[in-house]
Design a protein that fits this description.
With about 170 residues, the chain is of the alpha+beta class. The chain has five helices and ten strands, in the order E-H-E-E-E-H-E-E-E-H-E-E-H-H-E. Helix content is about 30%, strand content about 25%. The strands form three sheets. Strands 1, 2, 3, 4, 5 and 10 form a six-stranded antiparallel sheet that branches. Strands 6-7 form a two-stranded antiparallel sheet.
Length: about 170
């Protein structure tokens, strides 16, 4: 079995529904077991700023899939949920990123693990620290919790625990 952390993000409504559907599709795959889920966080967009706020979360998964097969599955789920890559770094129904795969450093044409710049992004580190504070990122040889404490307070403040206040 391989220990993997995945990041989920969405900034097109209904955002919570896209997260649930992605989790259901992952769980429906017999080679995947979701072991832990972080809370859901509402986060200010990073990179391309002129877009809506995201919901982000991180999950811990045990899987028999190798990294490229897992990437294929993530992209299949993104496509199923209607993701169109219209603006690079722009709005998306769902984004599924492989953050960590065991303690491996992987550089393929299609895939880099650990996920590039994950150690600098509050929208990744805050949910990841909730479920895996002591996990080491092998590309920088630092724990999640250490990288998080080095981020500016202003970045961490843009990541806020989200609760669903909508009534049915
Ligand atoms: O890298 C994932 C997509 N993405 C996000 C995101 O998921 N959350 C936030 N807050 N900003 C983002 N910018 C990009 S691109």
């Amino acid at each position: 079995m391989n220990k993997v952390y995945l990041a989920l993000g969405t900034n097109i409504e209904p955002r919570d529904v896209h997260l649930s559907e992605a989790l259901n599709l992952l769980e429906a795959n017999e080679a995947i077991v979701i072991e832990k889920r972080s809370s859901i966080y509402e986060t200010a967009p990073v990179g391309y700023l002129d877009q809506a706020e995201f919901l982000n979360m991180v999950i811990k998964v045990q899987t028999l899939l190798d990294p490229l097969a897992l990437l294929d599955l993530c992209q299949e789920i993104e496509n199923k949920l209607g993701r169109k890559r219209e603006i690079r770094f722009g709005p998306r129904t769902i984004d599924l990123d492989i953050l960590l795969y065991n303690q491996e450093n992987i550089k393929e044409d299609r895939l880099m693990i650990p996920h590039p710049r994950m150690n600098e992004r509050a929208f990744v580190l805050v949910p990841l620290a909730e479920i895996a504070a002591d996990e080491v990122m092998p590309n920088v040889d630092r724990t999640v919790k250490d990288c998080l404490t080095e981020l500016p307070a202003e970045a961490i403040e843009t990541v806020i625990k989200w609760t669903n206040n909508h009534t049915a």
